[in-house]
Predict the structure.
Amino acid sequence: MKATYHKYILQFKRPSGTSRGVMTEKESWFIVLEKEGKKGIGECGILRGLSIDDRPDYEEKLRWTCANIHLGENQLWEALIEFPSIQFGVEMAFQSLVSESPFLLFPSDFTDGKKSIPINGLVWMGEESFMKQQIEEKLADGFRCVKLKIGAIDFDAELELLRFIRQHFTPEQVEIRVDANGAFDSYLALNKITQLSEFEIHSIEQPIQKNNTDSMADLCKTTPIPIALDEELIGVFSLQEKETLLQKIKPQYLILKPSFIGGFRGTKEWISLAEKHQIGWWITSALESNIGLNAIAQFTFLQHNLMPQGLGTGALYTNNFDCPLEVSQGQLWYKKDADWDCNFDPKNWN
């Protein structure tokens, strides 16, 4: 078996804001496996300043992985424990290699085009007018669940945006999720969450920065809005560490990003623990290209979670790969008759 890796820079159509800053591009690396005339592809993607494997030796570890691909998927997964995005890429590449088609990893009613996956509509941070425009577009496009990134503009302005939604749509008509990306100060978080609760919010992701487990546990105990852990799960590697974290914080939800938490296997570990401790969960992409998003969507469908998932990021880039994934009326569909606009020659990718 031969393995190579290739870097690809995804370009945002419009600079996209979070509480950690504005993104204009996103880095991914693709692992390509070749064996007996077949090829498989897996995506390894990091978010600078957030991924636990945003390290100077990242490409060195990719080289090592390709040089040691003979070790096989399971042994490599263990060896790459501190590089969850590469774990994910390796899993994806091996599954792609043995599949009927490189992009049909997990056949189901979803990939047959018979069933869809409900998703949230993502509203990025920006000027108030821009956020209001996005909200109107998502609602007009038929989304019944919207997720707003908050914490970067004036908080009162963010409350006004939520008020705008609730003036036109009841909680039964539109579910609102907010994601603070750790932007709230610990001592102000409960007050801000209480103000947000006026708008009957479904949940708030990561209200304070990770690694403040005492404060987060207190918040989860007293919050008027269910709290979802996101960044808090990054860098928690062993099963025992995962369970200890959940037992201490006792969150209401988990947000699972395979690229951040060890791929399919890592995601299944978190799902198992969440269900053991009666914690809700859903799966979200981490701004992968359509290649990674496709794999995550197919995997997600098989987990039989009927909540809206965070998989609507395929249209963010100017140079994404055309694929069968299509968003319609707040649902992600797989158009089985559509073609992939992607070959395995990296010279043609950028």
